[in-house]
């Protein structure tokens, strides 16, 4: 197939890397990054109508959308209108991530377990609700905020201040014009991904992400500093509850909303006393979770996405390797506080066969400048290790980290600690 991948991060690189190992496809990335050009061809066509023309001219058989913004913009609708095969939700279905208010109301309407909440654009109403709540209090901006629109307030004053900053436009501009205020759930968090075709779904191994910048979950939230899968904190009973109480009613509900859900349903789950409660939905793979799930798939990745995009998932028997994967994000010096100056990445030659065969790099915030690979983004790359145990996979991921050098590099040293403690 000729395959087009939209996006430029580690998520898109890892999808491309998995597909490139199938050996039989031509890959294009829009816009890609400084390393995706080694897997296929980078193109730079931001206008969706012009992208449609490119897809037709180059006989693109499948387009895969990585990030949320093009989905919320309606890229899927535009491609489908032109009879092109594209994997991802329509603009209406993407509202599950594009609007936290919409998402919470879908959960409520279809009796899907979630935290008690109100949604409002009225500051007085928000402050009055906060007064009735126990601490801590969760405040969320309604729109897309690149994973940063959630505040966990430790006092009622902090919660009120967060609401006021969001509603005034100070924090997140238009994305904060509406807010969701909800109870804090005390449990452990899981990232669960279901590949959906509107009616059918295939569930992937549950992962755990590490959001905070520092060891021991300290410091500010980031886009994610590492992840591992499958996590031993989930069992068959929890998977079954997620399928019966969450995935099935969501797919049925979205059909009733006349917005059938196709693509990746990313379910943020909090497990409280053995019960899965839904924190949020996203409508695409998490990053860095995608980087660790791709190497665990025995089923060809292109097949999984093609069957999902053409409503044939019921015909696919998905196979997962009996392995674990751990991904460690290497970030630039000032991440997540501010941007860092570009710096060259030096990668040592890996001579250890075991490491060579059971680890790889997924590149994210990198550019090719004058033939040199440069770290230019906040999250620069992800070192992924696989193994028969979480410890083996983690050890390989960190060994790989030791082979990579750039000025100011930083990473957490405790990825997967929940599973190993």
Describe the protein in words.
- It is a single chain.
- This protein is of the alpha+beta class and 421 residues long.
- 30% of the residues lie in helices and 28% in strands.
- The chain contains 14 helices and 25 strands.
- It has helices at residues 10-20, 48-57, 68-73, 75-81, 95-98, 100-109, 123-131, 156-167, 236-256, 289-293, 301-309, 353-357, 390-401, 417-420; strands at residues 2-7, 26-31, 41-42, 62-65, 86-87, 117-120, 137-141, 150-153, 179-183, 188-197, 201-203, 208-209, 212-214, 218-221, 226-229, 262-272, 275-282, 324-331, 343-344, 346-347, 359-363, 366-369, 372-375, 379-387, 404-405.
- The strands form 7 sheets. Strands 3-2-1-4-5 form a 5-stranded parallel β-sheet. It has a 5-stranded antiparallel β-sheet with strand order 12-15-18-24-21. The protein has a 4-stranded antiparallel β-sheet with strand order 6-9-7-8, with helices on both faces.
- α7 runs antiparallel to α8 (156-167).
- The model has no long low-confidence stretch (mean pLDDT 95).
Summary of the model, kept short:
This protein has 14 helices and 25 strands.
Ranges with pLDDT <50 over ≥5 residues? Answer: none
- Helical content class: 25-40%
Rg, rounded, reads 21 Å
End-to-end gap: 44 Å
Average pLDDT level: 95
% residues in beta strands: 25-35%
Give the oligomer, counting copies of the same chain as homo and different chains as hetero: single chain
Give the overall form.
globular
Largest sheet: 5 strands, parallel
- Order of neighbouring strands in the sheet with most strands: 3-2-1-4-5
Q: What class would the helix/strand composition place it in?
A: alpha+beta
What's the tally of helices? 14
